[in-house]
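Researcher: We're teaching a course module on how sequence relates to structure. For the next exercise, students receive a sequence and then see the predicted structure as tokens, so they can try to spot secondary structure elements on their own. Here is the exercise chain.
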Amino acid sequence: MQGRTLTAFKRRNYRAGPNKGKTFKVETPTTYLATIQFHNEAIIQVTLSFDVINHQRNHMELYGTKGSIIVPDPNMFGGSVYISVTEGGRWGEHKTDKMHLGKINITSASGRSNESPTNANYRSVGMSEMLYSIEKKKKHRCSGELSLHVLDIIESTMKAATTGVPQKIKTKCEKPKRFTEEEVKKILL
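Model: And here is the predicted structure for the students to work with:
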């Protein structure tokens, strides 16, 4: 894992609350750039930033040797998935609005570009799945092992970015099983 960090602005404005309009000193990195190599040799590049004024890219693009895929904003649910499997080829659209967690449930825009009446927000579904699994004495997807691994990646990213020294991710975890439509339907009842 390698990383870099920067702070684009020395001062920022409060945009809401009692200090709205006032400025404050920025004392932490506001952009992280990271390259992570997985055990299977796959490599991803990640950019996380508070320094973007505006954007229209509420999605992730993933490129592989057999094709490319564009998935919607991972902070929300629903939205079309696009896949292309030929160089310079067409993008196939796969809609999610008929899936249980793809049905639009936001009725008014909040002003944030990723929270619009064309999206779905089921953020509590992870907790619902955990409670359902505990009740049914099943292994839930958001295990302590997965949580520790995510924290290890975050800490390693921050350390690599702030020190400029590549870091080794110390933990591993088992990939959670696919969340089937039938299982989703059970926890939404």
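Model: If you want an answer key for the exercise: The chain has a mean pLDDT of 88. The helical segments are 125-135, 144-163, 181-188.
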